Amino acid sequence: MDGDWTDHVTEDPRGSRHHRRDPRDLGQDLQDRQRRGRTRYDTFAETGSFDETFEQWGYVGPQTAAAIMLNYVPTDGRVLDAACGSGLTGVALARLGYAVVEGIDISARLLEIAETTGAYRRLRRVDMQSLPLPFDDDSFDAVSFIGALTYFETADILRELSRVVRSGGHVVFSQRDDLMRERDCGAQLRALEDSGVWHRVYGTEPMPYLPRHPEYGTDIEAQYFVRSCPTGRCPR
Ligand SMILES: C[S@@+](CC[C@H](N)C(=O)[O-])C[C@H]1O[C@@H](n2cnc3c(N)ncnc32)[C@H](O)[C@@H]1O
């Protein structure tokens, strides 16, 4: 897969080429998403419907990310599953042989569900809006961050996740293709590379994300990315 990467903003299949919004709207949009993210997932979990709902929507992010990670990260690697939710990504990683996975999420209820999967060595409740994360530099061989970038300032959280990954380690993450366009994420990913935080390793074109979601359907897809921290100390 080396060399076969994209981090470009793809054309909006619904017409407008860039589909970017006023930055003030984006700030408001992000704040709204952050607020919803804090409460919505607990509610989901309390009704016991989180995994069922995502399954009904045909959510394939965890399996896609785990399969991509297998190309770059040995299964004895220590992995942080950031915003792990109910543990779908941990389970997908465990099925592929990853045995040392830690999870963090803001939702206590989802963490309880993640605990029942048996896929995690350790789970902790962490508000990832509050940086730095409670990990030393270079603590992990890899980070997975799937289906959650929506709720965060792109560059801030990705820079922080790369901090906790050792030199030569990998960050595997996803972003919705519509938000790639709206937030100009491609430029932010390139800026992180230009400032030496990481190297581009791999990226996909938009791929299925929640294909049976009543609103997203196949209109909203996701792109998956792999970045590696340079060997030698990462500048931060
Ligand atoms: C769509 S779910 C994805 C969960 C998991 N990564 C997966 O793919 O199944 C988004 C997750 O982000 C978490 N989240 C949202 N805001 C957060 C925050 N400030 N700190 C930590 N986790 C957060 C939610 O609790 C939820 O578990």
Characterization of this structure:
There is one protein chain. With 236 residues, this protein is of the alpha/beta class. The chain has one domain (23-228): 3-Layer(aba) Sandwich (Rossmann fold), CATH 3.40.50. It is built from eight helices and seven strands. It has helices at residues 23-46, 50-56, 61-70, 88-95, 108-117, 154-163, 177-182, 185-194, and strands at 78-82, 100-105, 122-125, 140-145, 165-176, 199-203, 222-228. It has a seven-stranded mixed β-sheet with strand order 3-2-1-4-5-7-6. Strand 1 (78-82), helix 4 and strand 2 form a beta-alpha-beta unit. Helix 1 crosses helix 5 and helix 3 packs across helix 4 (88-95). Residues 1-9 and 13-20 have low confidence and may be disordered. The site of S-adenosylmethionine (SAM) has 21 residues, from helix 1, helix 3 and helix 4. S-adenosylmethionine (SAM) binds next to helix 1, helix 3 and helix 4.
Bound molecules: S-adenosylmethionine
Low-pLDDT segments, ≥5 res: 1-9, 13-20
Distance between the termini: 27 Å
Q: What is the total tally of β strands?
A: 7
What kind of assembly state do the chains in view correspond to?
single chain
